[in-house]
Every structure is written in structure tokens, then in C-alpha cells.
Amino acid sequence: MKTDIKYKIQQILNEIEYHDKKYHGEDNPEISDYEYDRLCSDYDKLIEENFELNFLKRDKVGYLPSNQFKKYSHLKPMLSLNNGFSINDIKEFIKRSKKFLSINDNSLLELVCEPKIDGLSISLTYQNGILINAVTRGDGNNGEIVTSNIKTIIDIPLKLKKEFPELIEIRGEIFMNKQSFTELNKIQIDIGKPQFANPRNAAAGSIRQKNINILKDRKLNFYAYTIGEASPKFTFDTQYNLLKKLKKWGFIINEEITKVDNILQIKEFYNMVLKKRDSLNYEIDGLVYKINKKDYQDRLGFQARAPRWAIAHKFPPEIAESILMDIEIQVGRTGALTPVGKLQKTKVGGVYISNVTLHNEDEIFRKDIRIGDTVQIQRAGDVIPQIVKVIKEKRPITTKKYIPSEFCPSCNNRTYKNINEAIRRCTSGVNCPSQAIEKFKHFVSKNAFDIAGFGEKQIIFFYNQQIINNFSDIFKILNYKDFLKDKERFGELSISKLLKSIESRRIITLDKLIYALGIRQIGETNARLLSYHYNNYDYFCSEMKKSKDNTSDAYQTLISIDQIGDSSANDLINYFNNEINLKTLDELLKEVQILDVHYKSMQSPYSGKNVVLTGSLNTMSRDEAKNKLQNLGAKVSSSVSKNTDIVIIGADSGSKAKKAYELKIKTMNEEEWLNSINLKKN
Ligand code: IVH
User: Fold this and answer.
1) Is the CB of 239 under 6 A from ligand 1?
2) DSSP output for 397-456
3) What span, in angstroms and rounded, lies between the C-alpha atoms of 236 and 245?
4) pLDDT per position as a tens digit, 486-536
């Protein structure tokens, strides 16, 4: 009985898909909208009547997704790529990889070269071959569910063709081709709406479009290039064969993709694609090289948010000319004053630019940039556009020299510039409105507390009303509900939505909290590293306080954390030994709950253990060993301290081994370690 229903459901789905293709893909519908809607409602009814088939649920066309997209935690994180800018960077990448894998430098290493599409990545979950979820990258761990919008993209199969695993996440790039982009902008002009700056923005805007009728006219495409999670039975041997498999399942694979095994071939491919770049119907900002063998990929693993087995080779920036109309000062979260150049709006590589960063006053003087100058500007991918040089031949006599502001444009306090530093700073801290507002903006931003609906406008309003003076005040806004009701610009609806989203963010993980505080040099990666190391807020805080004494174990432990250098350690210590900051944190802790963070890995005897590697290993490079340990859940440090749990001792080890014996720390040799993780020494 159930099989019959499943069969019927599948049949209707096939029909719907066929008409989708006719309607969206070929602009040549065979049935009326009415008939199409009937088909869909028959399908939906069957699903509703058969609760256990709910996972096959199809979002109705014409259905408006809720105002806020639901969140989804990727089964495997969506990573980004490390960038290379020259052929030398790529040579280094190959050399590094071979060293890691202990492969002879002269032997060949096969790579797959793929164009790097300038779109937005998406993760598509297929269960039993049926598309059940489409999720944006978000912060790499959590994205937004945009399934109904994705289903309007003809290149994305609603069901996979033959021999698919029970569950698989397909990853790739959604983009708008150049032709569709030009057509869309023509329509935007006709209907009096602003034009999109580039195809990427147009594609991203479309994916988050709430009105499905508008979305239907935005033609988007999709190239698949990798997978995320998959049922354990599914395996593949090379990236190239994975792409073939994706094609068999019904995905479109970029037709330029090729296999290479030496640097000469890479150069040839790079030059060929660069030459072709303008004539391709989609925007690319470089190439991606991926080590072909899956076994190598697994061994190389990941570092921070990017795989070690792949690199993006970025194309050179695009260049154009404009006129510098003015220079304004922006006050950053940490008090840095950044001069920003206001340009005559100019198109650079398909994107309209009206602002450029000028970095600092030294840079302005070094390049002799004056207001009124004609300047050469460049844009490279996501990087903020910059001025390359002044076109001196075009300099009019009316140009004005830049005079650094002695006073902060926000709080009027005197600014300060250390003779050894390029940056001028406002030292008023949170007493400077701009700094305070920037700190709040950072605190509520997507990768920190992620309070939806709390934008710059709201922050400025609450700040000016003195409703928010420090972080904890955000969680007390509720007390002003009646007052806010009276404020015309905050209709009941928008304020209740904001309050709801604030309430939903009272629980946060340690890594996000550390990042949210906006401590200098403590970005997302460092915040994550620290949270993996200390796990718990109270412990972290007390260790930071103790680290003030640089002879303490706490300090030694802090600086032995891989990638935390002296300078970021000092910023952390200064932050956690400042009375005002500690008071701010105490207040905040009364409002929010901080969840412990543990490195997600298989349970192993090394989970949570502090491990130090010393000496050289026979079977693998030190980097590979470190990566293996991290995958086993260990925290790998570079120096031995009282907090070290295990020291793995290779050949020719020196003082670290000695210290381990002195401190009576557990030690292992290479063979013992390999045995403990079921790897044999050969
Ligand atoms: S691979 C581990 N391949 O580039 C796999 N990414 O800068 C990581 N992108 O977030 C991605 N074309 O949005 C990969 N052929 C390609 C790509 C590609 C474009 C984008 C993708 C990624 C970003 C990283």
C-alpha cells in the first residue's frame, strides 16, 4: 500500500519537475498555471495524508517564506579557501603539501583545476535522492534554509538520478550569468528600482528574495563541485571522479575543469582561462586547485577554516580611473582612525565603487594623494577597493592636501599617533560614540551574538536614547517596551520582533562570546582556538587574569597555543585585567549563559588532552602528526608545561623531552603513539 503511494508521489513529482523545466528553463509552458497549481496541491495533499512521507514535502510555488529564514546546522562545516596570488604561491602550496605527505619533491602530484565562480555557495541535502534542504553557507557552521527559493533554479535537480547514497550534502556555487544580469538590470531601470552592482550581489539578493513571483524572473544557475556529509557507504577515490559522479546524478559541472600534474600545465591553464575570462558567460575571480587523490585530502585535512588540500589562485585585480572627491574619517571599534576616500562613482570590473580605503595618513602622504586628484583604483574580489596611484599628469591646480585631524570627528577628543605606528587613534574608548557604536555593531553581528533586526539604525537610536551603554543593556531593552511603543519609528511590530530576537540569543557558546567582545587581534579563528583550549568561560577568564604575570604557567600555556602569538596574548591579558572590562563582563554574565565549547571530534584517548610533539618522526611529517592529533581531539601545544598531558617523543628530541621527564609527564615514543591509534609503523 505504502509502496503504491510512494510510487504515485514520485510520478507526480516527475510531472511537476517536467513542467518546472518547461516553465522556468525553456520559458515554454505546456500547461496553464491553474493546472500546474492543481498538480502541486495534489502532491501536497498526498504528503499531508501520509505523515511518514513528510520529508518529501515540497514547498509550494507562490508560497512566501517567513520573514526570517530558519537556521540550519551543516552536517559538515562549509569551508573557505586559502588564497594564492602568484605562481610562486602555488609552487609553495605544492611543496608544502608534498612535505606534509612526505612525498618526494620531484614526484608528480595530480591536481584538479576548476574556475572559481564568483557566486555564493550552497549546501543541498538529498535524502533517498530527494532534495530536502538547501542551506546557505552562513558562518560555515550554521546557514539559512532557503529551500523554496532554490527550487526555482533549473540546474538543481529535485531528485537525483540512479545509485545515490541514502543521504548526501551536495555543495556548489549559485550564480547569475552575465546575460541574465544585464537583462535584470534593464528591468530594474524600467521599473525604477536600483540596479545591482554585480552578478554576485544579484544572485545573493535573489536567494534571499521573499517574493517568489519576483524570484521566478531571476534566472540563476548552479555548478556543483564537492560534497559535505554522506552516508558512510558512499566513497570516492579522486576529486575528478567525484565530479563525474555529480554529473551522473544530474548536476552541471563546469566545462573548463581539467587535471594537471605539473606547474607548467598549471601556468598554461591559468593563462588560457585568464584570456577567456571576459568571454565566459559567468564571472570568475580566479581558479581553484584541488589535490586529486581523496586519500591525500584526508591526510592533509584542514587548518582553521580552509582545507590544506586546495588553494584558490586569484586573478589580478581589475583597474579603473576615478576622481577623489573628499576624504572622510571613520572611527573603528578599537579607536583606529581610517581615512576613507570618497570617489566619483566608477565601474571597476563590473562593480560600482564610490569608496576606497586610504589605510592611514602615512600612506596618503607616501602616495601624495590629494583631494581633487585623478586616481587609479583597483578592486580584487571581496577586498576593499584601493588607490594604486595618482595620475599626476591629470592633477588640477585646485587640489587640496590632506591634513590629519588632531581631534576625533566623533568625540572631539585629541587624537594620538605613536611615532612607530601608522595608525592614528582616538583613545576615548567607549566614551567615544563612534567606538561605542562600532563595538555594539560587532557584538550583535552575524558571527557574534547574531541578533537579527539589530542593525546600525537601531543601535544608534538606543545609544542616543541612552538605553544601551554597555553590552548587558541590550538584554534589558525589554524594560523600555512601553516607552518604545510611543516612538513612532518603532511600530509595535518591529519592536516586538527585535525583542524576540534578543531573547532568543541569551545563550551563546564561548567562542562566539570571545569574538563578540571585539578584543584587538582576537578574530573568529583565535576566538575558536581559545575556546577549544579553555572550554569553559570561568576557567578561561581566570587563566587570562593569571596570565598577567608572564612567569606564570597560565601565561606559558596561553602563548603555547598554536597561532596565539605574544602580541595577541598581550591584547587578551590587557582586556581581562582592565577593571571596566571586567565590570562589563560581570554585568553581561547576569544576562546571558555561556556554553562550554569542545572540539568536535571522535571520542579518543586524546580528546581534550594537551599534547606536545618533539623531535622528528619516521612515518610522517610533524605537520601531519599534529593534524592527526587535532582530529583525535587533542590540543597540540608547542611547549611543555605543568598542563601538558602527553609528550610524544621522536628522534633527536632535546629540551622538551627532558622537561617532560622532570615534570613527570606521560611520554610516548612514535611507535607507542601509532599503536595507540591503530596505525602501524612501516
Ligand atoms: S571548493 C573545501 N571549488 O570560493 C571546499 N569553491 O573562497 C571549499 N568557489 O566558499 C570550496 N568556485 O563559494 C570550491 N570550484 C570551486 C569554487 C569554489 C567558487 C567559492 C566557494 C567558496 C569560496 C572560497
Assistant:
1) no
2) TT-B-----SB-TTT-PBEEE-TT-S-EEE--GGGSHHHHHHHHHHHHSTTTT--TT--H
3) 9
4) 776 666 567 888 888 899 899 999 999 999 999 988 988 889 889 988 999
Domain 318-417 has CATH 2.40.50.140: yes
Kindly report the CATH number that applies to the domain delimited by 508-595. 1.10.150.20
Task: Please tell me if the CB atom of residue 118 comes closer than 6 angstroms to any atom of ligand 1.
Answer: no
CB atoms within 10 A of CB 142: 18
The string over 321-335, giving b where at least 16 C-beta atoms fall within 10 Å of a residue's C-beta and e elsewhere, is ebbbeebebebbbbb
Q: Say whether domain 2-55 belongs to CATH 3.100.10.10.
A: no
63 pLDDT exceeds 60? no
Q: For domain 610-676, give the fold.
A: Rossmann fold (3.40.50)
Name the one residue in this structure whose C-alpha cell is 520582533: 497
Grid coordinates belonging to 319: 583597474
8 A C-beta contact, residue 431 and residue 439: no
Provide the 10 A C-beta neighbour count for residue 520.
Answer: 16
- Dihedral, CA atoms, 593, 599, 603, 608, nearest 10 degrees? -90
Say yes or no: CB of residue 282 within 6 Å of ligand 1.
no
Q: Single out the residue of 228, 103, 114 nearest to residue 169, CA to CA.
A: 228
Nearest-angstrom CA–CA distance, 210 and 427 = 44
Instruction: Note the pTM of the prediction, 2 decimals.
Output: 0.65
- The domain covering 83-314 belongs, at the CATH homologous superfamily level, to DNA ligase/mRNA capping enzyme (3.30.470.30)
For residue 116, report the distance from its CA to the centre of ligand 1, in Å: 6
pLDDT tens for each residue of 286-300: 999 999 999 999 999
**Rounded to the nearest whole angstrom, what is the distance from the C-alpha of residue 239 to the centroid of ligand 1?**
14
| 177-226 per-position pLDDT tens digit | 988 988 998 888 888 777 777 788 889 888 888 777 777 778 999 999 99
